[in-house]
Amino acid sequence: MKYTAAFRIWHWLNAIVVLGLVGTVLLRKSFLSYKTNAQIIMTKLSDIGVDIFEEDARLIAKAIRANMWEWHLILGYALAFLVVYRIALMFFDKSKRDSFSSLDLHKKGVKLSYYFLYGALFLMTLSGFAMYLREELVLAEATLKNIKEFHEIVYNYFLIFIPLHIAGVVVADIRDEHGIISTMINGKTKDNF
Fold this sequence. Notes:
- This protein is mostly helical.
- It has helices at 5-29, 34-47, 54-92, 105-132, 141-175, 180-186.
- It has one domain (5-186).
- The relative contact order is 0.12.
């Protein structure tokens, strides 16, 4: 298998963007959780004799994480660009790949997992933009809630896919596809060295 520079660039940019998106969500749900931080803010202010309403503490906690969440939106735009880029690669990329019918059962499963990944990237982008543009799209509250739940389900797919992908590539490189990692980095197969 030989990957073109265009495909390798897409792969690594996509990896950075997806990891960034997942990272911002993990931060939002853990260290930067507005509910947890609102309680910390209220407790610490109370310790020095300042009492505030929980609603005000939540506003402060949300303000603390606002810059980080801005990065989620920027990375969302980058993901949209990369989805369009990947669609273009489907038509124009000249990477040498084995035909699906020539693959063994395991490699067919791997290839199908990549198709699921591409679908998940597309659905993540659509649902993310639908939430972001909710006012312009005049979405009902119930519809917005369903889209958000769907967005989170797709997010959970990435939580599973990322470690499995990394582990699978490392195992494949060790077992029978020696050099697959370096091929994705520099484009050279073991035949080119």
